Amino acid sequence: MTGDPYRKNAASYDTFVEPFIAGVRKKSLGLYPPASGLSVLEVGCGTGTNLIPYQLAGCRVYGIDLSPAMIAQAQKKLSTQADLRVGDASRMPYSDDRFDLIVAMFTLHEMPFHVRLPVMDEIVRVLNPQGRALIVDYRIGPIAFPLGWLAKGIAFTFEMLAGGEHFINYRDFLERNGLPPLIADLPLAVKGQAIAGRGNIDLYLLGV
Question: pTM for the whole thing?
Answer without folding.
Answer: 0.93
